[in-house]
Amino acid sequence: MAKFIVKRIGYMLVTLFIVVTATFFLMHSIPGDPLAHMARNLPEQTRENYYEKYGLDKSTSEQYLIFMKNLVTKGDLGESLRYPGREVTDTLLTNASVSAQPGGLALLAGIAIGILLGIVAALNKNRWPDYIVMFIAILGITVPVFVLASVLQYFLSVKLMVLPTTGWGSWQNVVLPVIVLSFGTIATYARYVKSNMLDVMGQDYILTAEAKGVSKLNVVKKHVLKNAFLPCMTLLVGQVSGIFTGSFVVEKIFGIPGLGFYYINSINDRDYTMIIGTTVFAAALFVFVQLVVDIAYSIMDPRIRVK
Amino acid sequence: MEKILEVENLNVSFNTYAGEVKAVRGVSFELSRGETLAFVGESGCGKTVTAKSILRLLKPPFAVIKPESKIVCNGKDVLKMNKKELCEFRGDEVGMIFQDPMTSLNPTMTVGKQIMESLMIHKKLDKKAAREEAIKMLKLVNIPSPEKRIDNYPHEMSGGMRQRVMIAIALACNPNVLIADEPTTALDVTIQAQIMDLMMELKTEMNTAIILVTHDLGVVANFADRIQVMYAGEVVERGTTKEIFNESKHPYTWALLRSVPRLGSESKEELYALGGTPPDLLLPLNHCPFADRCEYCMPICKERKPPETVLSDTHKVSCWLMHEKAPKVESFYDRRDK
Amino acid sequence: MMVNHDVTDRMENIPDEKFTIIGIDKDAEAPTRPRVGYWRDAWRRLKENKVAFAALIILLILVFFILFGPAISGYEFEQIDADAINKGPSAEHWFGTDDLGRDLFARVWQAGRVSIIIGILGAVIASVVGSIYGGIAAYFGGAVDDIMMRIVEVLLSIPYLIIVILISVITDSKSLGTMLVALTLTGWCGIARLVRGQMLQLKSQEYVLAANALGVAPIKIILKHMIPNTIGMIIVAITFDIPGYIFSEAFLSYVGLGIQPPSTSWGALASAAQQNFMFYPYQLMFPALMIALTMLSFTLLGDGLRDALDPKLRK
Fold it and tell me: C178 with C249: CB under 8 angstroms?
């Protein structure tokens, strides 16, 4: 077991390393001068100072080594190109804590509601609850997040005025983003849980349980659910990824000062250090979630556990 | 002997997209306490469906037990039971074991818990008592180190052991009847013998009546008291084991007997295989179902269903060859001894 | 019903000839159901699935409009009309106009061409690459398979859209080609895994072993047994992937990294309409509706195809 964990952590580190390195070199391969836009009107000496500050006077490989050293020893991702003085790492952490609120809530709500709906659909196959759930699920999967966000914003904020349109600070600001972000997760989990449950219910061991005289309720509770839920863990990574990218759009539309919002801005601003920083952060997040899921899954599935 | 199970005119159909498949057509039989009855026939003849119907394990609306059917077990009308009564009935009065031990056990539940579940539901034992009883059951089915094995998961056991666990689960509440649906088909031959021996032991010890569903006549010879041969959803011949092996009268039974390869036969002839395929169960079949593949087929066989001829208290056969006008034929099972 | 050699009335009336043995009629064809080939059966099952079939029809209708819509509208999609700025849907402009007075009906269908092409091309390219990769990994097995799959694992642990955005930023070109490269760069990984998994499973299936035992050459086994069984799955995977690519393109455009004027795509239209959403919701509604409809139809079609092509469900 321990061997397994160590192996997975190893993978995680290797992956991160590759991603960071690749991102770094790719970004630095962009032709042109990252500071050009900003430094255009500055006097020669100031310009040189800036270049030195950002280490841009050195070769790419040297910059890489400095970058990695800073990253690994101090967790320092440098300073923003667009806003000198702003530490990338600090900005990321601040933004992340903002994004984590609607994001985290959306994840939890999405999973809980999604699973619930999935169970309802499976137990009522081909009857109206099934159709309703499947309809919601289809909507969640096919309607793009920016459409959903815009529509909800239009109806609930503008027309009905129950919730604020944009802004950040009170719990009301969180409601719409959470609804929008969780939709996809609800849809995915509902479909998956339903499909898994139906699969499990068709298995031989369910017949054995029935032959023993176990009531329908207990068959579902004790035999179906556990076996159906186990594979759902693997969905987690995709959902985190989906909510993360969904937040790009949602934060823009609802004016939330989170990770996604600043990421979009830094792309448009060509703020390369921010872009690298955010990418590294995102990659680390996903790889970590993947690791957690892998380990948790192996603990919970007795078939894998006993190795 | 006291009758523990009576089935009359069982008719079971499946509603498929192509129409109504009549899988079981008017099957009747009885089972006495402590006796072993074998259902024998090829795949698709309806023997498993009949067995499952006793516990009502087939799912409506797809599968339908027709209203003219009657199943009475230990005085109770199974087909009229409500959900609660049915759950009490299953596992307690009648236990069942299935064909594939690999897939018939819950992979994420320990073996012990699966046995205990039955005990806790029917015998109302608490966890501790159930666990002790489960260990006893494991011992009974000859699983070594039962105190350790009880916490194993199914995948940690071999196929033979899993099947023993299945037997333990089915017999945990000491049911009157055990239904074994092809219990050894998925196991290899040496394990087969072990499992059958185990079932013999248990049957004697617990006086359980057993319904053994199989397509393998070899397994039946030393095990069953009585045999009923099924074809295309109907019983074509029934009798004691002796009667079926030595005095059978139905051409299909002869074909089944003939197909069992004999140890020590001198001739180097090809293994016998019955030609043709079973009839399509969508069709009504108002004549003898075996007519198309029968060497002794007569015109009457394709027109009307043969009546059931009584040869003795226990031996009955449904075949037009029994009619006084029919020619006398030699069983080609006996034939090959010559 | 027991007859103990007593002859009942009915029995007596049976003529003697009925009891002459005629044995097995070798010429008689037992009544069986007609055999249906795999593809024909799949098509039949698909047609029976009303939802999937409806989705197919919707897609065909969309394709029709995409091809002929701009022509039908009577306007050029770039045609600017300063007098008709931001007009709602009307008889002259069925979908209304945008802030430059361009007819939205024509623009939506023009944009559709780009979106659908990206969707289909992206999915197909990724699937072809992925299938070949997966097939090779499965065929060779062992160490080769291990390494190839490790690579896939690493690639898959990086969030898809991040890669797409990165590539777009780096190349800094917004052409169709670049976008396709960005989208498919890691998009093939999913299919590679699926195909490899399926092929490995097929390899150990009994009928492959049987073919091997019968002396059939490996290449024939691959062609006749493994590929036909995998194609169904690949087709389904492509169908399910297409909406993903359409969405990714829309997302990219929304973020400003996608298709640039004068070309347009549904995502680009939506993005441009975002600002005016409060005042002119229809500008966002139509492209959004098309995106949703297309994605929905492909997904439902994929569901239906999967059920239709699954050989285990053949009845």
Answer: no
Tracing tokens 């990421």 back to the chain, one arrives at: A263
Q: Which residues of C98-117 are buried (b: 16+ CB within 10 A; e: fewer)?
A: beebbbbbbbbbbbbbbbbb
Encoded tokens for B2:
């006291």
d(CA A244, CA A126): 34
Please answer yes or no on whether A283 and C162 come within 8 Å at the CB atom. Answer: yes
What pTM value is reported for the model? 0.78
pLDDT, one tens digit per residue, over A198-257 is 888 888 899 999 999 888 888 888 888 888 888 888 888 888 888 888 888 888 888 888
Band (pLDDT 50/70/90 cuts) for residue B138 is: very high
Over residues B32-51, mean pLDDT: 90
The beta-carbon contacts of C199-208 under 8 Å, at least 24 apart in sequence, are C199/C134, C199/C135, C199/C138, C199/C139, C199/C226, C199/C230, C200/C138, C200/C141, C202/C226, C202/C229, C202/C230, C203/C138, C203/C141
Q: B331 is written with which tokens? A: 């069983």
Q: Provide the 3-class DSSP secondary structure of residue A121.
A: helix
CA distances from B112 to A44, A95, A185, B90, B147 (A): 81, 51, 37, 19, 9
Q: Residues of C with CB below 8 A from A264's CB?
A: 255-256
Tell me how close the Cα of C97 comes to any Cα of chain A, in angstroms: 19
ipTM above 0.90 for this complex: no
B316 strand-pairing partners: B238, B310
Q: Which residues of C touch A245 (CB under 8 A)?
A: 159, 161-162, 251
Q: What are phi and psi of A126, to 5 degrees?
A: 65, 10
pLDDT in tens, C52-80: 888 888 888 888 888 887 777 777 777 77
Decide if A275 contacts C169 (C-beta within 8 A): yes
Helix axes A2-28, C160-171, angle to 10 degrees: 20
**What Cα–Cα distance (Å) separates residue A181 from each residue in A135, A239, B306, C288?**
18, 10, 70, 17
Q: Give the integer Cα–Cα distance in Å for C124 and C305.
A: 16
> Which of the 8 DSSP states describes residue B16?
E
**Is residue A192 a contact partner of residue A184, using CB atoms and an 8 Å limit?**
no
* Mutation choice for B interface testing from A123, A212, A297, A306 by most B CBs within 10 A: A212
Mean pLDDT score across all residues of chain C: 76
Structure-token pair, residue C155: 């690639």
- Helices C160-171 and C227-255: crossing angle, nearest 10°? 60
